[in-house]
Amino acid sequence: MKNQRMKQRKREKMKVEISQSNYDEILKDQQDEITAHHLYTKVAGTIKDDHNRKIVEQVAQDEKAHYMKLKEITGKELKPEKIKIEWHYWLTRILGLTFGIKLLEKSESKAIETYKTLNAELAYLDDIIEDEERHEDELIAMIDEERLNYMGSVVLGLNDALVELTGALAGYTFAFQNTKLIAITGLITGISASFSMAASEYLATKQEGGDDALKSSIYTGMAYVFTVLFLILPFLLLSNPFVSLGVTLVVAVLIIFIFNYYISVAKDYNFKKRFFEMATISLGVAAISFAIGVLINRYIGIDI
After folding, report:
1. I need a surface site. Which of 77, 99, 244, 247 has the fewest CB within 10 A?
2. What does the mean pLDDT of the chain come to?
């Protein structure tokens, strides 16, 4: 009974010292902590690998401890947000464990800045700050996930397909001006190039003494093929070749955006720098190839 009265007085003192805006922010953070606890617990139940499951279970326990500490400040019992749990759960299942956890931790990193501004409660919240920073720096970095181990191979296939095929399709568009012919030619070019790229990756990895040369080549080839299919699709669905090319370039930028967002979250890369670099190269090559197609069509004079 005495302990309860002491805790109640402590909470009342904290409410006085904390501004209303900071109190509201802590209440929001408390909501996020209990939501994250339930999410990580649910995700951990689907992980077969013992090593990865223990890491996620540790994160879940930390989030519950954070919730209880913040509860002592607010004095409120909160329920997890079910919609947010389901959304992040399926993102994790589809896009990978590391991506799902880091995406959620990025939103929680904002809470750390809030805690650091509360001078009166700084010592009390030090444990939470330390845990949140440790999650990404230590626990998440320990997760062994195959798709991230082969991300270099995926980058190779994706980037090469974007640069080569956007350029080729731009050149074919003005040279042929026939969507079906452009699609067929682009498909033949793309599929052939994917096999060539996969073989090159296999030989390069083998030469470097890697034991995973076959897997690396498969990831490279598959990334190339899927990129080719998405870039050619507008020419199969639309009748105007120039409109098709415009849609293809938009698709290329979307692929670059989505991939770089994924890799920036999962691998802590600079999103803006990588996105603009890839987009500039792909669209630049497409513009040069389009100009070459114009010149071929005008001066060689071949009508197809």
Report:
1. 77
2. 78
Structure-token pair, residue 41: 């617990």
Closest CA to 151 of 101, 104, 98, 190: 98
Phi, psi at 216, each rounded to 5°? -60, -45
Whether 240 shows a pLDDT value over 90: the answer reads: yes
The residue to which tokens 């630049």 are assigned: 284
CA neighbor of 84 nearest in space, from 21, 33, 136: 33
Query: Virtual CA dihedral for 228, 260, 105, 101, nearest 10 degrees?
Result: 20
Residue environment code for 284-302, b if the CB has 16+ CB neighbours within 10 A, otherwise e = ebbeebbeebeeebeeeee
pTM: 0.66
Confirm if 126 and 39 have CB atoms less than 8 A apart: no
